[in-house]
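User: Fold both of these, please.

Assistant: Here is the first one.
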Amino acid sequence: MSADAGRLTKAAPEPLTAVEGERSLGARLVSFVSGGLVRVFLIVVGLFWLVPTLGLLLSSLRPPDEMSSSGWWEVFSKPSQLTFDSYDKLLGNSDITDSILNTVLITVPATVLVVVIGALAGYAFAWMEFPGRDWWFLGVVGLLVVPVQVALIPIAELFGNIGIFGSLIGVVLFHVGFGLPFAVFLLRNFFAEIPRELLEAARLDGAGELRLFFRVVMPLGGPAIAALGIFQFLWVWNDMLVALIFTDADSQPITVALQTQVRQFGSNVDVLAPGAFISMVIPLLVFFAFQRQFVSGVMAGAVK
């Protein structure tokens, strides 16, 4: 009888500890919060994040006297204020329209060159053997910590000596030079995660390095390349410091052109508001158009 009682005592379930009880409560809270409540919270945060953009859009559609006398939310009570006169005036301002074209001529080549050169260099550092490969890569990583401000004066003197200071080419080369270290670092680490067996199988089928790069590595590296392209595009499009130093009146992008408008016409809000909205909405459209590739590239390698 005592032996049976001992077995029953051993078989009896142990009482829940305080830690297990807390974990169960936490699990219940996580299950509750991860439902519709979090979605509602994220939607509210997203709407608040878009409020400045909406306010700038509505301000750009209001007459100048209304903008200076009341807030943009007055549009909801007086929708008759909305007009496209400011955009008509903006399109008639040659400084702004030329600067938008200059911004495109700077951003697109700087983005494409960084992506192409960074992808080629990243593949070489990841899968090609050459003397001093690791040391060269460490040098590239070291360039990530070099601030842009340190190189402004030396590179300005260099561009002046070779005759490209104040031109679009000089601004593009500057952005390419400072965008490549991050591009090489990002893509090399991504390409290194590609299974070696896949590349060896392609080599056994007779694929050379270029064919291997374009037919195997590039399709697999699409998310990382898209994320890099978005980063580079946003950085170059929104840049003002480099453009303010390395451009002149004929090559200035929209960021510098808007700053010039503020300096020359302090109350010229009918040009500044639509110009600022155009300058902001294009990067937003690019981000939303490629947000899926951007998220895939950022999360690449986080889960195997």
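And the second sequence with its predicted structure:
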Amino acid sequence: MATPTLTGRQTRPTARPPSPRPPGLLADLTALVRPGQWTKNLVVVPLGLLGAPRLDGPALAGALAALVVFTLASALVYLVNDLGDRDRDRRHPEKRHRPIAAGRIGVGTAVAFAAALALLLAATVGATVATGVAGPADWWPVAAYVALNAAYSKGLKHVPLLDVFVVALGFVLRLAQGCLASGNPVPSWLALGVFTLCLLLVLGKRRHEMAVGGVLHRPALRGYTVGFLDQLLGFTAVLAAVSYVLHVQSSAVFGPHGPLVAVLTAPCALFGLARYLQLVVVDAGGGNPTRALFADRTTVTNALLWAALLAAAWLLGRLG
């Protein structure tokens, strides 16, 4: 019924905005495997090609196979983690909207989906072995990744420091897989650089989680303070910068120009690290490192300049 106003006019009742339609089953299943996180594999796995003596067909096929296999493995890990964390996710302001935590995907459906992903992963690895793209022994990093994340889901994620080290180690395994599948050795300084950089990103995420979700969502946060995390962030950033310089300086990719390339590109590396620390400490960001880095124009501009310098140096190394 219309409500009379002081002027004698009647006003129509305010219509309620329509409630948003919940995502469909396909959209929820897609969200479970986190396609937005696949850029991690796209960035890290192909690094194994950097030390390749030549970019021939077998090397590229091996890198592509490693990329597909690790994408399937990481999708499986994300799904299993969501299954195990569904109760804690319901208490988180953002993660409570995930399909399993929100109740849109049942546990039985999620388990069946995980089994299908596991079978697809095994079939893909078997196909690469059968076609000669890679040997059976070349896939130990992905096996170690799945086993490590199973231990992580069972309890390591609740142990302070171990929780961040395990996540960072997963990126080193990505790098190792890309190297082995493309027929190249794993560069030690590059592996250390990947580990420390990813450790930096995970520490930034933990710092953000302390401010947003508190320790109830992630019990391992009880072993941290903001001051302790800030010290770890600075320490890890220094190690990442040193590892990068030493890798570029000694890399055969740049030939005799390695020391010069290290000097010319070090400012880009240092600026990128400093900018991330600024986003985490000053702007209170870092909850989603991938989104924070790719959405920040300053970081993207610096990365493009950095990539252009490295590409030019790589071409000089090939020609020289």
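The first helix runs from residue 25 to 32.
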